[in-house]
Specification:
There is one protein chain. With 355 residues, this protein is α/β, with parallel strands linked by helices. Helices cover 45% and strands 15% of the residues. It contains 13 helices and twelve strands. A seven-stranded parallel beta sheet has the order 3-2-1-4-5-6-10, sandwiched between helices. Strand 5, helix 6 and strand 6 form a beta-alpha-beta unit. Helix 9 crosses helix 11. The protein binds nicotinamide-adenine-dinucleotide and thymidine-5'-diphosphate. Thymidine-5'-diphosphate (TYD) binds next to helix 3, helix 7 and strand 8.
């Protein structure tokens, strides 16, 4: 079996659903169930004995050691993290605790587990660490896209904590020989994304005719990848990626935030014409401090070495995503608890609209 951490979050739950649709091998899902972790994402697996859920913190060394000893996975895929840049600006300590200290615990317990395996199992073992393109910092408008050898230059507490975890993962390969692989992926979107991130926030706000808060001038650029394509990349990397390597994952779909928000509005205009044009809800608000201007990913290594290409274009993926949120309004209501409303009050306070 494989051990997935953070499997009740956005990408982790998509990964488990993707994995169990394609493979017979069971998944142990170790997740703390923070505000971002929702077992409702995995409701379709309730009767599936191949999904084993363990509520635990990756920072809880004894518990992680126990799960590894009991389940004896052949691989660990680490999605568990605090993942939202804006939350890291309001409270960086939790990011260091989970993303740095937690990853170190998980790495070290995985190293111990790996060292107990027989020789053939030891060389087949993998620790896949799921990271972000944000570790590379910000690009200028005409700079080439990030490659695996781009220098790390994290600018937010979130990015800095992920960068630190990436360095620890690398060190565990060089120092102890653990067969690790790190992936650095661009912005994901798709089903089950917690509605504080740009795309689901805009979809759900627009459906309620609430303002669409665009930070700064709306011209910051992100590369967008449909989550299913990220899951496919991770499955391929687990099967055929080379230990000790890092792989960039991206959709070759750079868009300004304003383009993304307008694209969401255009789809909603078609499916909810009564409230068209939704783009009149856009409000430019105070910028995020230290807001990275542009991310772009060169996924050439993954494409040429392992033959991966994204199957979904941005417009098609966005249409699917909007459709999913329209069909799953109850899911959105069930995950947006009191904590979520408190977060909205904190993050958007003092961000009055400006022309
Ligand atoms: P998410 O916030 O939706 O989910 C994170 C999950 O981790 C949740 O289920 C949460 O309960 C769990 N978790 C948090 N702290 C934990 C702890 N201490 N112990 C155990 N579980 C814990 O995040 P996501 O968007 O699904 O991102 C998953 C991973 O992918 C993260 O490592 C993130 O850095 C990385 N990533 C995300 C994106 C993106 O666009 N969302 C892009 C590139 C990389
Ligand atoms: P986000 O989804 O938080 O992802 P990340 O910060 O990891 O890229 O934000 C994506 C972009 O959208 C980012 O440039 C910030 C911007 N943004 C807004 O303009 N308004 C919002 O309300 C949010 C949440 C994000």
């Amino acid at each position: 079996m494989i051990l997935v951490t953070g499997g009740a979050g956005f990408i982790g739950s998509n990964f488990i659903l993707h994995w169990l649709a394609a493979e017979s091998e069971p998944v142990v899902n170790l997740d703390k169930l923070t505000y971002a972790g929702n077992l409702a994402n995995l409701a379709s697996l309730t009767e599936d004995p191949r999904h084993i859920f363990v509520r635990a913190d990756i920072g809880d060394r004894a518990r992680v050691a126990q799960v590894l000893a009991e389940q004896r996975p052949r691989a660990v895929i680490n999605f568990a993290a605090e993942s939202h840049v804006d939350r890291s600006i309001h409270g960086p300590a939790e990011f260091v605790q989970t993303n740095v200290v937690g990853t170190l615990n998980l790495l070290d317990e995985s190293r111990k587990h790996w060292s107990t395996l027989a020789a053939a199992e030891r060389s087949a073992f993998r620790f896949v660490h799921v990271s972000t393109d944000e570790v590379y910092g910000s690009l200028g408008a005409n700079d080439p896209a990030f490659v695996e050898s781009s220098a790390y230059a994290p600018n937010s507490p979130y990015a800095a904590s992920k960068a630190a975890s990436d360095h620890l993962v690398r060190a565990y390969h060089h120092t102890y020989g653990v067969p690790v692989i790190t992936t650095n992926c661009s912005n994901n979107y798709g089903p089950y994304q917690f509605p504080e991130k740009l795309i689901p926030l805009m979809i759900l706000n627009a459906l309620q005719q609430r303002p669409l808060p665009v930070y700064g001038d709306g011209l910051n650029v992100r590369d967008w990848l449909y989550v299913e394509d990220h899951c496919a990349a991770l499955r391929l990397i687990l099967a055929r990626g080379r230990p000790g390597q890092t792989y960039n994952v991206g959709g070759r779909s750079e868009r300004t935030n304003l383009e993304v928000v307008n694209a969401v509005c255009a789809i909603l205009d078609e499916v909810r014409p009564d409230h068209a044009p939704h783009a009149t809800l856009v409000q430019f608000v105070k910028d995020r401090p230290g807001h990275d201007r542009r991310y772009a990913i060169d996924a050439g290594k993954l494409e040429t070495e392992l033959g991966w290409t994204p199957q979904e274009g941005f417009e098609g993926g966005l249409r699917k995503t909007v459709g999913w949120y329209l069909d799953n309004i109850e899911w959105a209501q069930s995950v947006t608890s009191g904590d979520y409303r408190q977060w909205l009050a904190t993050n958007y306070a003092g961000r009055e609209a400006h022309p």
